[in-house]
Amino acid sequence: MTVAPPAAEQRGSSGRPVPPGGWLGWLSTTDHKRIGLLTVGTSLVLMLVYGVFALFMRSQLAQPDESFLTPQTYNELFTIHGSGMIYMVMTPFAIGMGVYLVPLQIGAPGMALPRLTLLGYWLYVFGALTMLAGFATPTGAAADGWFSYPPMADSTHSPGAGTDLWIAGVLLAVTGTILMGWAVLWTVLRRRTRGMTMLRLPVFCWSMIATCLMVIGAFPALLAALVLLAVGRADPSVFASNVWNIGYQHIFWFYGHPVVYVMFFPYLAAVAEVLAVFSGRRFFGYKGMALSLLVFAALSMSVWGHHMFATGQAANDYYSLTSIALLVPAGVEYFGMLGTLLGGRLRLRAPMLFALAFVPQFLIGGLTGIMVGTPVIDYHVTDSYFVVAHLHYVLFAGSAFGLFAAVYFWFPKVTGALLDERMGRTHFWLLVLGTNLTFLPMFALGYLGMPRRVATYAAFDGFGLLNLLATVGAAFLAAGMTVFAVNVLWTLRRRSLGRSEPAGDDPWEAHTLEWATTSPPPRLNFPADRPLPPVSSFAPLLDLRQRERSGT
To answer: What is the spatial distance between Cα 115 and Cα 86, in angstroms, rounded to a whole number?
Structure first.
């Protein structure tokens, strides 16, 4: 009797090892597509968890003098909500998209450094679980904000294991993100197919180059800040001197501003891809877009001090100038998106709706960012709800809409099935209504003087109506996210039962190489019996269709 070797030792007809199947195959995979799906899937689940925290906070603030939450619980929720959305959701999802899409878009059979990529994913998962474990400690989770400024976050003012677990969780997750960023950058630089020169890379790949450069250049600063904070918790005398308190802020914000663009560039590029495909046009101003992403990334590391105007420890003129200079590359990117739309034949499917909403909504976040980058305005609105509104117009009204545009656009590539269009439209309109009803009133609240990070307010402050509107808007956001979750689960269930309508390999008539393979792609990305089309520009499939129509 012949005994088959373990799965890890089996080899296929090609002589390559056969990866294990089932759940073990997913947990130990070196297939970049699976690692990317694990990353974005984990991010989406965590988005729902941290979104529930936000609903609790909005319930507490719906009316003055509310006691739905204790002040300590409220502080823990806003800390873990903010930390989670930045460290565990928007940043990993952006990198996860790169892990999945970059090898496909450059015509590579796989990922460079796949085991390092898998290690990065597991560090991220363990980091997320470690942060959430703070709720199980006697003193509760961390309650010092997503930035954990000392001396507030030292062991004297924040005793207990919650902040220690926060430090460990963020350190693990950010280390994992750095490892995945290295792998994505190395892949796009070294594994491009024949004909794929740098100036033929898709816009999304250029966004990942800029993103990964910021991850590699700026994220180690956060690791240094976390080590400093850990040392200060072991010896609180470290933060007895204001040198280290302000020094921590400088180190932290050297990371803290580039991470905003890490949470922006991949979603911007996803929107650019969607706008081009659903306009039926080549992306306008391709070279300008690529250059603007690199300039934006470089400038992002020179503006951190505008977060510190109120401390009096930052050079106002310099940081205000560099902040305003960001308008130039941002303008180039917006010009490219608008130029792509003009003259196009627009198809208003769900991905396109989210992409179109991204454009004006993120513009509000960007312009208010220039406002808070101006000292005379920042002095008035710093640490107020104006800043909360600005941040959420950047990360939710902007980046999250880009995220959903990407999900609806690439879902058929990943699964071979289309998400339901009617539920997609319902999701879109609920999010548009909820986003603007929730966050627009916060600009007025901040201008009128409502400080952020407060668990309640007095009736005579006059903040009740605007807060009630924001809470009603949050209910619409919750409804929209519920529709989205139902849409994804329902579509996957129908697909597993063979009842979903097949999407085909390219239901959108897209432009880039990931759509030249089957949906979903095979293990090595491109079937041997389906050669890649020649690459003569950043939109090779559009080139192919144009040649076929012209008969050349």
So the answer is: 25
The single-letter code of the amino acid at 154 is D
**pTM of the full predicted structure?**
0.95
Closest to 273 (Cα-Cα) out of 404, 181, 409: 409
Taking the C-alpha atoms of residue 128 and residue 123, their distance in angstroms, rounded to an integer, is 9
- What six digits make up the tokens of 421? 């269009």
CA distance 82 to 454: 14
Q: Residues for the chain: how many in total? A: 552
SS3 at position 433: helix
Of 299, 380, 381, residue with least CA distance to 333? 299
Q: Which two tokens stand for residue 183?
A: 């792998």
The pLDDT profile of the chain, 552 residues, written as one tens digit per residue, is: 334 444 444 555 455 566 677 888 899 999 999 999 999 999 999 999 999 999 999 999 999 999 999 999 999 999 999 999 999 999 999 999 999 999 999 999 999 999 999 999 999 999 999 999 999 999 999 999 999 999 999 999 999 999 999 999 999 999 999 999 999 999 999 999 999 999 999 999 999 999 999 999 999 999 999 999 999 999 999 999 889 999 999 999 999 999 999 999 999 999 999 999 999 999 999 999 999 999 999 999 999 999 999 999 999 999 999 999 999 999 999 999 999 999 899 999 999 999 999 999 999 999 999 999 999 999 999 999 999 999 999 999 999 999 999 999 999 999 999 999 999 999 999 999 999 999 999 999 999 999 999 999 999 999 999 999 999 999 999 999 999 999 999 999 999 888 877 788 999 999 999 999 999 999 999 988 888 999 999 999 999 999 988 876
For the packed helices 71-83 and 32-61, what is the interaxial angle rounded to 10 degrees? 150
Q: Residue 139 in 3-state DSSP?
A: coil
For residue 498, count CB atoms less than 10 angstroms from its CB and return exposed for 0-12, middle for 13-18, buried for 19 or more: exposed
Give the Cα separation of 353 and 413 in Å (integer): 19
- Beta partners for residue 451, in sequence order: 384
Can you tell me the distance from the alpha carbon of 514 to that of 520, in angstroms, rounded to the nearest whole number? 10
Q: Are 295 and 330 in contact (CB under 8 A)?
A: no
Q: Which of 170, 291, 184 is nearest to 222 (CA)?
A: 170
How distant, in Å, are the alpha carbons of 129, 139, 245, 308 from that of 160? 18, 6, 20, 28
Structural Rg of the chain based on CA atoms: 24
Q: Return the structure tokens found at 6.
A: 């373990």
Rounded-to-integer distance, Cα 284 and Cα 277, Å: 12
CB–CB of 46/403 below 8 Å?
no
